[in-house]
Design a protein that fits this description.
Layout (H helix, E strand, L loop, with lengths): L5 E2 L10 H7 L15 H21 L7 E4 L2 H16 L5 E5 L4 H12 L3 E5 L9 H7 L4 E5 L13 H10 L3 E5 L11 H4 L3 E5 L10 E5 L25 H39 L3 E3 L10 E6 L4 H10 L2 E2 L1 E2 L12 H5 L4 H4 L2 E5 L6 H20 L2 H7 L5
Parallel strand pairs: 1-11, 3-4, 3-5, 5-6, 6-7
Antiparallel strand pairs: 2-8, 7-8, 9-10, 10-13, 12-13
Helix pairs in contact: 1-8, 2-8, 3-4, 5-6, 8-12, 9-12
The structure holds pyridoxal-5'-phosphate.
Length: about 400
């Protein structure tokens, strides 16, 4: 039991599926040409790259290959979308709206635009964990260039009403971008159905390689490239393409879609078991967001009166990997901006855990977690002056 290795942090990253590795290997050995060269070796690599692009086009319901730009991941796609669209559409300045609980990959380029003379509105989600289209309507202006709202939140796991939000933005003449890094392959995602102008994707959230992603840009969307050079990727992202990465991304996406219906049902059941298990066994625990539309694989809970870091480390000692809402990637102890944005008080945000499940999570893994976690919380609460202050000294 001490040798258990239970990974419950699939929202942070996923292992590369062996089938994806297999699909990538030829492009590191036999087919290593430059896809931009005209001789046979180059054409072989080009064919592989364009086949990967075609697969992404059809997987997300795009209408043309030049709407898909391969990038170095979700962060680059978000940066390119925000900065590339806004600076080309309104070079002299204008208004941008992003939701307040976006990933830093959207928030930081938004801050950059703000420093560059654009006005940015950080639209607050409702306490349930979603962006209400009526709230968006209120903050839209005639000079709003772009609205960016993520499809699925990477911390609390709630899904956003993208189709309705995009419609509201378009009604006022604004373009619409969505960060779909967490949702691609996990819930249905179709750019035509959702009506978005741009969307970001990341390879390593779908059992593909790290450092590979894609940006969907609807034809005709104004865009200034961030990476300039040889003009690859339709002049939108220069640099010799990562053919193996593109093949890996496309294969990973195909596998996600082939397994989506059965897998999302299986994961939702396991997720519900986690939520039900924790909230029924451990008192003073609650799900962070109540919005019913959600990713099937993310459970986010507030464990009152306990430090997230402490829970994470105690679970790590038992071979379980989870994430908390108290420390962001920089290692700071700031409470998560996502939890603060939905009105969660800082002291509660510090005591939150995110359990995210995936392809290799078994029911047995979940039961092991539910067996190990309650005594950890009980022990930490017994030592916690904060818990005593909040709920009195007795545990039960
Ligand atoms: C992981 C993630 C990103 C960043 O993607 P990278 O490929 O790691 O750069 C952006 N947005 C969301 C919502 C994510 O979950």
């Amino acid at each position: 039991m001490e040798d258990r290795d239970v990974y419950l942090d699939y929202a942070a990253t996923t292992p590369v599926d062996e089938r994806v590795v297999e699909a990538m290997l030829p492009y590191y050995s036999e087919v290593w040409g430059n896809p931009n060269s005209l001789y046979r070796r180059g054409r072989e690599a080009y064919t592989a790259l364009e086949s990967a692009r075609e697969r992404v086009v059809s997987a997300i319901g795009a209408s043309h290959p030049n709407e898909i730009i391969f990038t170095a991941g979700g962060t680059e796609s978000d940066n390119a979308a925000l900065i590339g669209i806004v600076t080309r559409a309104k070079p002299a300045g204008g208004h941008v709206i992003v939701s307040a609980f976006e990933h830093h990959a959207v928030l930081e380029p938004a801050h950059f635009l703000e420093k560059s003379g654009y006005e940015v509105t950080y639209l607050a989600p409702r306490p349930e964990g979603y962006i209400e289209p009526d709230d968006l309507r209120v903050v839209l202006r005639d000079d709003t260039v772009l609205v960016s709202v993520m499809h699925g939140n990477n911390e609390i796991g709630t899904l956003q009403p993208i189709r309705a939000l995009a419609e509201v933005a378009h009604d006022r003449g604004a373009l619409f971008h969505t960060d779909a890094s967490q949702t691609l392959g996990k819930v249905p995602f179709d750019v035509a159905e959702l009506g978005v102008d741009a969307a970001s994707f990341s390879g390593h959230k779908i059992y593909g390689p790290k450092g590979v992603g894609a940006l969907y840009l609807k034809r005709g969307t104004p865009f200034a490239p961030m990476v300039r050079g040889g003009g690859q990727e339709f002049k939108k992202r220069s640099g010799t393409q990562n053919v193996a990465g593109a093949a890996g991304f496309a294969t990973a996406l195909d596998l996600m879609l082939a397994e989506l219906p059965a897998e999302s049902e299986r994961l939702a059941e396991l997720r519900n078991r986690v939520v039900e298990g924790i909230t029924s066994i451990i008192e003073n625990t609650v799900e962070s967001a109540t919005h019913p539309a959600r990713l099937p694989n993310i459970a986010h809970l507030i464990i009152k009166g306990v430090e997230g870091e402490a829970m994470l480390l105690q679970l790590d000692a038992k071979g379980i990997a989870i994430s908390t809402g108290s420390a962001c990637s920089s290692g700071s102890l700031e409470p998560s901006h996502v939890l603060l944005s939905i009105g969660c008080p800082a002291e509660l945000a510090h005591g939150s855990v995110r359990v995210s499940l995936g392809r290799y999570t078994s029911a047995d893994d979940v039961e092991y977690f539910l067996e190990v976690f309650p005594p950890i919380v009980e022990r930490l609460r017994a030592m916690s002056p904060l818990y005593e202050k909040m709920f009195g000294s007795t545990i039960k």
